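Thread: quick sanity check before group meeting

JM: Hey all, I'm pulling together slides for Thursday and realized we never actually wrote out the predicted structure for the chain we discussed last week. Dropping the sequence here so it's in one place. If anyone has concerns about the input, flag it before I start.
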Amino acid sequence: MIRLDRDGPVWTLTLDRPDKANALTREMLVQIRDAAAEAEQAGLAALILTGTGKVFSSGADIDAARAGLATDGVWEEVSSRIARLPFLTVAALNGTLAGGAFGMALACDLRLAVPGASFFYPVMRLGFLPQPSDPARLAALIGPSRARMLLMAGQKIDAETALAWGLVDRIVPREALVEEARALAEAPVAAPEHIRRTIKRMIRG
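JM (edit): ok, ran it. Output follows.
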């Protein structure tokens, strides 16, 4: 359900459960966390996160969420691991981004989306807290008021609104999505590893 394509200095991690809208189980989250750890050791230039089908991820698998996954610390482990990666990370969002799946996308450096994507994080309605790091990362991208629109008012936004707010950086046709993500990795591939690491550290402050 998680596919990792190791292609030289640019790896692609794909959520591959399209029949379930790429809903995430604990096993899948552990695989993502471990893949990110492997990528860090490999000294990559870039890691791309994407999905198969028309939904990037609907968030937690319903049965797993009822069994406790909704409040499991593994979500924060995944996003923290991705956020710490010392190279470019790109979320190539092939469709809707919802719920707990926000964490890994917010932890990436850049986010691309297809035109029909929508974005919602219904924790208030479901009676759960968001992942600990998500509200601050979301507010840093789109501002506190708009973060409240998503997290507190439970609003759903489309790709054009997400672009205008700064939640995504580009809207890209579906057929060109991964190619566009790989094109963004060309400069990091050409740079020495210490330059990649240092520039990312400088941006973090």
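AS: nice. The longest helix spans residues 26-42. The chain is about 45% helix and 20% strand.
JM: adding both to the slides.
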